[in-house]
Input
Amino acid sequence: MSRKRHSMPIPDEHIERRISAATSLSFCVLSVLAQLATSLFLTHVLQETGGYIYAFLLLIGAILAIRVYQRPGSPSYKLVWMCLLLAMPITGTMLFCLWGGTHQAKSLSLKKIPPVPVREDQRRDCEANLARLRRQSPAWGRLAAYLQKRGFLLFRDTAAQYFSTGEAFFEDLIARMEQAEVYIFLEYYILAEGALWDRIFAVLKERAAAGVEIHITFDDFGNLTRFSDGALQALQDAGIEVKVFNPVHRYVSRINFNYRDHRKIAVIDGQYAYTGGVNIADEYANLIVRFGYWKDTAVRIEGEGVWGFVTQFMQMWKMMGGSFPNEDDYYRPRHDGPKTAGYCQPFTDGPLNNPDNPIEDTYLQLISSAQRMLYLTTPYYAVEDSMQKALCIAADAGVDVRLFIPGVPDLHKFTYMVAETYWGELLSHGVKIYKYTPGFLHCKSVMVDREVALVGSTNMDYRTFQLHYECGVLLYHMSTVEDLMEDLDAIASQSTLYTLEDWSKRPWYRRVFASFFRLGAIWL
Output
């Protein structure tokens, strides 16, 4: 079907969507400004006329600050709230009650759904896999045991294919979807109209007409102006089930849009699953140019490990109020997985887990377990002191620590400036920082000692570790780790080595603004 038919929304609906988004976000900003103005006015009045009342409010602010300090969770998050509560008790108390004192479930309106049951034979197999990995590599066995205790099973008999570009990923994904016989699951942060979407939608529509069950979910905030109501209606008219995560039109009543579904998951017939940094949009396939060459990566797994992504998708779908026409076991693989070496462990994370953050803890364990080399790619960097220190310790201990970052930043300029404030300390401890000069490096991966690789949707920043739903897959002792290593070497060859001297030459005004923005890094 032609692009014109799908990519041109009904004008009134598109305008209405933009107005709704702008109204909602403007309301949030105006609400915050009104709260600040009111609290500052009350503070002035109470200081002048109500000394006892103001003293009482100071006490309340101090009590709340102590409560924040005692809660488990992110030190940066606690520090910001404590400073606000102590410096501006009225404003801090109001904002804390709105944003800091309630559980995230109230903001997300997600149903509490029990996890997909694990069959007893599968549980035994995964426990046996864990025992084998412990004997082979005690450090990776500990990491796998940590994740398996949280419900993320360790699989064998899984093949993996690494894609070093978005272009290669999409060609493979579309080819597999064309062969789908039972179902297709897609969950993406961005689902944008364009030439790429035209190709994908044509395949989805044809497969739906052939009786293939298709479920799609995407984040509303990530698609405010990129996926129209007309395109959404076209999906539904084709018989495709769609769920929109955290719809923008509800923000007006809740003033909450911070929590997002940032995961990238595609599953086909329970046989193939994909994850990585790639969203469904033209720039990810370099069909359009936004910030130079868009470098992204993904991985496809085939076999037993696919079930990990199936359950992740099904869990989110049910939490959003969706249902499936068949029993859970219907979506299991129809065929045995290939007999391969190594182990595969899909996992996920989200704000409902706070203060337990499996993805952040996984990064820390990967860093601390590195013996020879530790390569990390991320488009954004704003981490807790514990992770910053862990990287410095690894470099001081002689580990070859390399951090690959974009040479051309995207629209998040302030976030890029905040990242710069961390680099001086890393460089002084011997961490090598590579700036990818051809353009924007959006891939998210970790490679340790040519033994373990992590590929997923995760950035190295507060949003990933605290506010977003994320996913990833750990590959232990699989040949795909070597493919990632080769790609990282290729990235290094196209990058400029950033030095401590470069960092010291930053303009003074950039240093000042970056230091100021770092105070609010948890909200960037």
Notes: The longest strand covers residues 468-476. Residues 233 and 242 are 10 Å apart (CA to CA). DSSP finds 20 helices and 20 strands in the chain. Confidence is low (pLDDT under 50) at residues 1-11, 102-106, 251-255.
